[in-house]
Amino acid sequence: xxxxxxxxxxxxxxxxxxxxxxxxxxxxxxxxxxxxxxxxxxxxxxxxxxxxxxxxxxxxxxxxxxxxxxxxxxxxxxxxxxxxxxxxxxxxxxxxxxxxxxxxxxxxxxxxxxxxxxxxxxxxxxxxxxxxxxxxxxxxxxxxxxxxxxxxxxxxxxxxxxxxxxxxxxxxxxxxxxxxxxxxxxxxxxxxxxxxxxxxxxxxxxxxxxxxxxxxxxxxxxxxxxxxxxxxxxxxxxxxxxxxxxxxxxxxxxxxxxxxxxxxxxxxxxxxxxxxxxxxxxxxxxxxxxxxxxxxxxxxxxxxxxxxxxxxxxxxxxxxxxxxxxxxxxxxxxxxxxxxxxxxxxxxxxxxxxxxxxxxxxxxxxxxxxxxxxxxxxxxxxxxxxxxxx
Length: 390
Hints:
Elements: H1 2-29, E1 44-51, H2 57-65, E2 74-81, H3 85-94, E3 97-101, H4 108-119, E4 132-135, E5 141-142, H5 146-154, E6 160-167, H6 173-195, E7 207-210, H7 211-217, H8 226-237, E8 241-251, H9 257-280, H10 288-298, H11 303-319, H12 325-342, H13 349-370
Parallel strand pairs: 1-2, 1-4, 2-3, 6-8
Antiparallel strand pairs: 4-7, 5-8, 6-7
Helix pairs in contact: 1-6, 1-11, 1-12, 2-3, 6-12, 6-13, 8-9, 9-13, 11-12
């Protein structure tokens, strides 16, 4: 019985730790992809789904419009869901296109599908000859060279790109935990994967896709985990996803544990809900290695269970002088090393201590989320922004 228990613990805790370690080390070895100057300038449609984002959408749109790229070659389209008419008018005055939508069940997937229908409509012919679609969240901030950098990297290739999304704020211990988690994801699931020849994972914003592929696929994305649906579709269609570590997208990190729980619940639900869909379509994929890897990582337990569980099991194994103690201790050290490699340079020792103090709360919330699976795909779970966000 103890042997079986140890095998289960190794599969659930040690294998993910080894996985993080291998890809974290590989991610540190990869060179930044900047792209070459390209004489051909592509046309871009920047889509910004905005659900009740009146208090912060202006900064996002202003940054998206203020690009060192020819104005005639990109357009910004805000999909306005639940925002005030005065906000829509302000955005139009700034130079953005605004698509007013109203859904029985709001979701980002529905907003993107509506945007495609709008772009293909006869009244907006300017979108008809776009080359790429870029997706930003309503709280994202990009630099002036964002579109021009995307153009250099894409260079007319039929690929997708995931930009480097990083924290805009780290003013609470929860925000720091969110920021550190995202940077570890960037290292392991993006830089590390590209270093070993696999596609980068998507993150929901700061993404660029070939216009034709996106227009033909957007209506098929229906869950709260539209980015994971995109990953599956890209793998099936044989489209590689490049990670652009040098193209930054600033993202508002959640400041409260309540919002972090909502966010993780949405992710957990979408991951498990899509497992069946992923397994069903396995036989038709073109990039089988990437598809197998995606299924493998989706089977991992929530990360906070690994972070809390592996050291605890290692300690118990040492106390009881188990033959498995070396395995658990070694994997704990590998997991710690992977997180050290992924930690943002701006996060200090005191900040990391604050993150560890939040782990018990995060563990409790994760357990609650596990027993709440199914909710996020039946209803729209909106992560509120704090009043003091920029």
